Amino acid sequence: MEEIIQEHIDKLLLFMREEAYKPLTIQELEEAFGIEGSEGFKDFVKALVTMEEKGLVIRTRSNRYGLPEKMNLIRGKLIGHARGFAFVVPDEKKTGDDDLFIPPTELNGALHGDTVLARLSSQSSGSRQEGSIVRILERGTKELVGTYTESKNFGFVIPDNKRWTSDIFVLKSASMGAVEGHKVVVKITSYPENRLSAEGEVIQILGHKNDPGVDILSVIHKHHLPLAFPEEVMEHANSVPETISEEDLKDRRDLRDQMIVTIDGADAKDLDDAVTVTKLENGNYKLGVHIADVSHYVQEGSPIDVEAAERATSVYLVDRVIPMIPHRLSNGICSLNPKVDRLTLSCEMEINNLGDVVKHEIFQSVIKTTERMTYADVRSILEDEDEELIKRYEPLVPMFKEMGQLAQILREKRMRRGAIDFDFKEAKVLVDEEGKPTDVVMRDRSVSEKLIEEFMLVANETVAEHFHWMNVPFMYRVHEDPKEDKLERFFEFVTNFGYAVKGRANEVHPRALQQILEMVQGQPEEVVISTVMLRSMKQARYDADSLGHFGLSTEFYTHFTSPIRRYPDTIVHRLIREYIINGKVDNETQAKWREKLPEIAEHSSNMERRAVEAERETDELKKAEYMLDKIGEEYDGMISSVTNFGLFVELPNTIEGLVHVSYLTDDYYRYDEQHFAMIGERTGNVFRIGDEITIRVINVNKDERAIDFEIVGMKGTPRRKFKDRPVVIEQPRTGRKKRGGRSERSNERGGERGTGRKFDRGGKGKGRGSASASASQPGKKDSNGKKKKAFFENVPGFKKKKKKRK
Predict the structure, then answer these.
(1) pLDDT digit string, tens, across residues 397-450
(2) Coil, strand or helix at 293
(3) In-domain check, residue 19
(4) Quick one: 661 exposed, middle or buried, by C-beta within 10 A (0-12, 13-18, 19+)?
(5) Residues spanned by the domain of 105
(6) Cβ(332)–Cβ(340) under 8 Å?
(7) Would you say residue 217 lies in a domain?
C-alpha cells in the first residue's frame, strides 16, 4: 500500500514540475493519470493528502493542486537567530539562491528547526528576499537542553540554544525534582501560542551546571551527539579479530619490507595514514600514501557500518573524542600502529620536479610501519638538525629530507595554480582530569605538518581524478565558487587599503585571491583582509558530482585519507574496492551507487557542520572558563571583527572578547559597515579590524560563553592613508573556465583532526609580491583622442584626487 502511494507521489511531483503545468482539481488529476476503480482512487487521494500535509503541494481556495514554488511559496527549514529574526533554507535550493529572511513579526509561531511554508513578500528590499511564515508543517525540536530555574509552584527551562527564543514552562510535577541551576533535558509537550510559553517535562537531569563535566555533557546533548555505541555494535566490534590472518592477505601487495612511517601528533591514537618517499633514478619521486583499510572490517550494512553512517564523523571536543567507530577498531586493528602488520589501501604516485603526477596506481596492500614518528621529532630533524634524533632515526633521515623536498615541490605547484592558503592561528585548550582549563596553547603548523598535508592533498586529488575519468558514480569533496555579490563587496572593501582586482567577480580565479594574501602578508591589514575574504567564501561539502574545489584551485578532489574518522572516506574506500579491486562497473552497481551517494553526501555534510558547531562551542566554553580568574588583567590584542554593537578583540592565544559600543566613551562612534570600522564623529579616531589595542577584562559569563573587555586608555588609530593608485592584482591571462554545474580551514591531515571549516586548506603562505603591480598605463589617449581612465578609477569606492588649479 505504502509503495503504491509513494509511486503516486513521485509521479505527481514529476507531472507538476513540468513547465506547462497549471493547478488542477483532484478530478482533473484523476483523469490525467487515468485512475480507475474505487481502490485506485482512494490511494490517489491518500497520496495527495500526504503531499499536502508535508507541504509538497498546495491546495488553493478553488481546490486546485500545485507546487509551492509555483505559487510564490517556499518550503524549507527555519533557522532562528538569537535576536528574533530567522531564515528559511529552501528544500529545493537552486545554485546562487539566498535563504529567505523572516522578520520577527512574520514568524507566526514558527521556531528554529521547524519545517515551514513561507510566502515571498512583495516588500522585499534590495537584493535580500523577505517573507512570512504561512504554515508550520512539522516541528523540528522535540527536546531541548537548558538550565532549570524554579519558583514556588512551577519552573522554567532556559534553553542553551539561543536560536530557540522561547523559555519552556515546567510544572513542579513534571520537573523530576530538578532544582535551581540544574542542567536538564526537557521534552516539549506544547509549543508557544499567542502569548503563552512553550510547555514541557524534564526527562533527564544532567547535573548542576557547576559540576565538573556537566558543561561539556550539555553541549553533547544539545547537539544530539551520540555517546555510547549500541550493544549490537559493540558485540560486532568485539568479534573483529585483533590480528591479521593468511586469508586477509589474499590478493594484497606485500609492502612489509618497505620503509614506511606514520607522522602524527604525540597524543594521536587513531593512526590512519602512513607514507614513504623514494627518489627515482630519473629524478622523479615515488610517493606512497597508505591508508588504513577500514572498509575491510566495516562491511556494508553491518551494525558498525549503519552506526558509522549515522555518525558520519568523529567529534573532537575539548576533553574527549566521540569516535565514529568503536575504539577497539579505531585504536586497534584499523590503526597503523608501529611494527605490526596492517591492511591498507594504497595510492602510489610518481611525481616529477614540477609537482605533476606522471603515473599512479591504486591497490590493496599490507604494510608494517618502520616507526611511529611525531610532528615534533620530524620538525626537529628537518629544521633544528637535532643530533640526538638524527642518530636515533639515522636510517630514516635521508627519506625525511626527500619528503621535505617533495613537499616543497608539491606546495610550489599548488601556489602556482592559485590555491588559497589562509594562515589563521589555531589554539588548543588544555584541561585537567576534572575538565577545568589549565592553559590555552597555540597549535604549531611546522614543516612536518605541512609535509603530511601536501601528501594527503595530492593523494586525494589523484584518487578523485582517477574516478572522474572512469565516469562512475563517486563521492567528491567540493568547494564551489563564491557568490558574485559577496566577492564584489570584498573587491570594493580591499580598495580601501590600496588594492584592486582586475576583472569581473563572477570570473575570478583563485590565484588572484591568493596573490592578495601574499601581498598583505606582514602588513597591518593582513588580518582584516584575510578575515573578510574568508567570509566571502562558501563552505566545502560532499557531493556526488565533481564540481571542483575553488579554495584548492583544482578540478577534482575527494576525501580518501581518513576513513577512521570520516564516513565519506570509508565510502570512497568501498567504491575503490567495488570498481577497481572487484572490477564491478556494471550498470546495476552504478545504478545502486548513483541512488545512494547524494543522500550519504548530504547527511555527511550536515553531520560535519554539527560536529564543527559542537567543537567550537566547547572551545568557547572552556576559553571563557579559563578567563574567569583574569578579571581586571590587561592584555594586548587585535580587533578581529567590528559590528554595530561593538568591537571583538582577539588575544594572542585566540581568546576573543567584546568591547561593547557603550564602553567607547571618549566620543560618539558611528559604525561604518563598508569599511568594517567604528569612526569617532568628533575625534576622527578609527577602530578597524586588524588594529592592535590594549584591553582590560571586565566581565566573564561562562554560561553565555561571553567575555567583556574595555579599551585601556581609549585611544584609537588615526585614519590610515593609502596610495592614490591601488596596487593592481591581475587575473591570469588564460582566464578561468567555468565548470559544468560548478560554480576549510584545514580538513586534511595538516589540520590533524579538523572536521571541515570554510574549505580544505592547502599549505602555508610564503613570500610576497608575485602579483602584478602594473597600473595598465593610465593616462594614454584612445583613438578618439580622449584620455583613457585607469581601470581602477572605476572600482567602487576608489576616488581619484582632483588636482587644484593654480
Answers:
(1) 999 999 999 999 999 999 999 999 887 778 999 999 889 999 999 887 889 999
(2) coil
(3) yes
(4) middle
(5) 72-138
(6) no
(7) no
- Could you give phi then psi for residue 748, rounded to 5 degrees? -95, 175
Distance in angstroms (rounded) separating the CA atoms of residues 84 and 81 = 6
Beta-bridged to residue 693, according to DSSP, are 637
Three-state DSSP state, 19: coil
CA 704 from chain centre, in angstroms, equals 23
Smallest CA-to-CA distance from 371 within 349, 347, 389, 388 is with: 389
CA dist 250 and 366 (Å) reads: 10
**How far is 334 from 271, CA to CA, in rounded Å?**
8
Cell of 414: 599548488
End residue of a domain, out of 584, 619, 654: 619
650 and 614 fall within a common domain: no
Give yes or no: residues 606 and 628 share one domain.
no
Give the closest residue to 313 by CA, choosing from 325, 327, 329, 295: 325
b (16+ CB within 10 A) / e for 363-402: bbbbbbbbbbbbbebbbbbbeeebeebeeebeebbebbeb
b (16+ CB within 10 A) / e for 776-801: eeeeeeeeeeeeeebebeebeebeee
Amino acid at residue number 472:
V
C-alpha pair distances (Å), 429 with each of 307, 627, 709, 759: 29, 12, 21, 23
CA distance 527 to 665: 26
Same structural domain, 93 and 162: no
Q: Is residue 300 part of a domain?
A: yes
Residues 43 and 168 in one domain: no
Report the distance separating Cα 639 and Cα 689, nearest Å.
5
Q: Are residues 330 and 466 in the same domain?
A: yes
Asked whether 222 and 315 are in contact (CB, 8 A), the reply is no
Contacting residues for 328 by C-beta, under 8 A, at least 6 apart: 237, 238, 240
pTM for this structure? 0.82
Reported as a single tens digit per residue, the pLDDT across 513-530 is 999 998 888 887 787 788
Domain match, 134 and 151 both: no
Domain count, the chain: 5
Kindly state whether residue 466 falls inside one of the protein's structural domains: yes
